[in-house]
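Look over what follows to help learners.
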Amino acid sequence: MKVLKEAVKRTEEDRKNLTETVSRMIEEVRCKKDEALKAYNLQFDGCTRETLQVSREEIQKAYSQLTGQEIEDLKKAAGNIRAFAKAQRKTVKPLANFSPMPGIFLGHRILPVESCCCYVPGGNYPLYSTALMLIIPAKTAGVKRVAACSPVMKGTNAINPKTLVAMDIAGVDEIYAVGGAQAVAAFSYGTEEIPAVDMIVGPGNRFVTEAKRQCYGQVGIDFVAGPSEVMVLADGSGTPEVVAADLLAQSEHDPNAKGILVTTNEEFAEKVIKAVEKELSMLSTAEIAEKSWNTFGEVILADSEEEMADLANAYAPEHLEVNMKNAEEMAEKLYNYGSLFIGENTAEVFGDYASGTNHTLPTLRAARYTGGVWVGTFLKTCTYQSMTKEAMKELAPLVARLAKGEGLMGHAEAAEVREKK
């Protein structure tokens, strides 16, 4: 393996400062509630809203600010996302009357969480697509109260109109004009205006991510995710400009985003690097994309396709593209990724917007143990059981012996007392 371009590493001091800053913000929201939220809204976004919840009138105004084509595009994307979510929901089924022995009946129910908050970022860009990706699976799962929040456009009191319309098309129940770590704290602990929820999902900057990490336990979360990542596996048979475009599509998200190329072809790698430089000279978002690429972009020359697969599985990237002749064959060797894109025709950005899969995915190697947001994120598999008297009498002595072996005499008595009935 040879590294042609290596990423810069974050320092432990950076992590410590982030943790301490977010901890102070959470505590302030817990204590001062709406007062703290409004102060942060003013401090970070120049927002002077007195009421954080967005009204129906504001949503209708947002529709009037969009063209008919923009509304139709959002509805089309929502249709694909909803169709896939419904198909996924059908795969998650209850189990009833399973009997490991006569007279014992076991099962599980599939229950949606009661409430959730869908966090829709709004910093550098209005990520209205994220509203569709979060709200639609939550509603499809059957969550009764689906709230959403997003920061206002800088220096205004309004959420981006496309984001508001996307939230409405997705079927949201409540919308709040607030973002950042303070929003996570508010939905975790509740304020005068914002009732707490059972779960918070959605991507965000490092402050949002750290707040989700610190609030986990008080509230459920999807996962702790960091900046966006894409890894492209290429054998050199593809188009350098296509790979370059896919790398920069992630790099433009955030100065901390990561675009990684792994290839067995050094000549192709050099062509991709040149193609990246060429596109950066024309890209309107080059200020962010170039900083991201220069700081965190990587180009790795692997010795074999087997090493490419090993590197991908070890890295566990958020988005994993297979730009190879034998893409389907390589895909079978991959098992750690947030979402997989097979073949050059399958652009990662298609999944970002409208193909139907979800773009809220694990980063920071979390794909080793979890997938992305889907309808099942909002579902609980809860077991239950019942048994006949005969089965109870047969099972009780076994349970009593096991309990006594652990020294838990109260457990043993709870089994034995039933035998005496």
Notes: The chain is about 45% helix and 15% strand. Residues 2 and 372 are 31 Å apart (CA to CA). The chain has a mean pLDDT of 95.
